[in-house]
Amino acid sequence: xxxNSIISNHDSFKEKTLTNRFFKHNTIVDLLNQLxxxxxxxxxxxxxxxxxxxxxxxxxxxxxxxxWSQMHGDEATGTMALFDLFNFLQSDAELAKLILESCxxxxxxxxxxxxxxxxxxxxxxxxxxxxxxxxxxxSEARLLKQCRDNIKPDFGFNLHDQQTLWSVTGTLKPATxxxxxxxxxxxxxxxxxxxxxxxxxxxxxxxxxxxxxxxxGLFDDEFEPRAFGDNFQKAGTSTILIEAGGYTNDYEKxxxxxxxxxxxxxxxxxIATKKYPQQDLKNYFAIPKNNKQIFHILIQGILIDGIEVxxxxxYDECPTSDGCSTFKTYSIQDIGDLSFCDxxxxxxxxxxxxxxxxxxxxxxxxxLLDGGTPILSFENGTxxxxxx
Length: 388
Hints:
Shape: globular
Strand content: 25-35%
Helix content: 25-40%
Organism: Pedobacter boryungensis
Structural class: alpha/beta
Number of domains: 2
Protein name: Succinylglutamate desuccinylase/aspartoacylase family protein
Order of helices and strands: HHHEEEHHEHHEEEEHEHEHHEEEEEEEEE
Strand order of the largest sheet: 1-2-4-3-5-10-8-9
Distance between the termini: 40 Å
CATH class of the largest domain: Alpha Beta
Low-confidence stretches: none
CATH superfamily of the largest domain: Zn peptidases
Number of strands: 19
Number of helices: 11
Largest sheet: 8 strands, mixed
């Protein structure tokens, strides 16, 4: 697969209707209704608030692959990438033909439409669907669980977003993408099912690392008995987790979306060509792990109470009441020697000074000056001025 060629042509496959993270269920339904007859769309059931949860089937191959997105309503990157995938599969690209000839795809975009409506993680019952596999008190969890049981897919792609503060060990770069073959037991054993997922991920990393060097990590390998990925792995579906993290100045994840789309294609290519058995497990374990060594804002070498320190500032992102945007609240998260850290934005100059009080774990409420000129100003956690 020529990954560079596909990425360079991403705009020709990109679903233009989806321009930010805040699209709603009605937009998704409209797009599904526009798919050609080769894409069989059916309603699996309803969300708590009565919104349809839909399954798209395409391809005529023998390898069954199930992909699902937006179990968490505020994790929209995977859904955008899936609609880019729908467009790609309608093209005359050789890889598109190969995937449809070799695989039978089952795709569930937006498993949690009620959460997406208000841009929150949980469903309308305030349940985290991805922690509801065992009890299945939510209708969304029951539908997803039953869907896998009916299809019995060979492979599964579990599509999520992670916090933008995850970084890649040894790079001090944001973990723009993270992969994982979830564990199926507490001992983190590796059986044939999990091994196959690991080998596919090794192929994916090999293809994507050239596009995103030092920006791809391995997600935390910890067994979660209530999660779908862990239990699908246990049930015999080789499950691949993809997480979209952060990328500089890409708040709406439109750049990350390109790489996410490429990651899905790389995985499908590995499966369709059956090249993953040629991989080595050591290449999976060689993927650098995620850690947290970055801040949203880092102010370096500033004097506070007569000592020189660095200040690490992060924001919490909350949806507005209409679920169509978010607001950010910045707080002081660390003070001291942060020389081992990086940030999305760094302020560092001998001429910097502060006007206001810095209080750890409190909302940012100060002014940063460069030679006496304000360059960054916070008021109760909100940025009110930032020099371009």
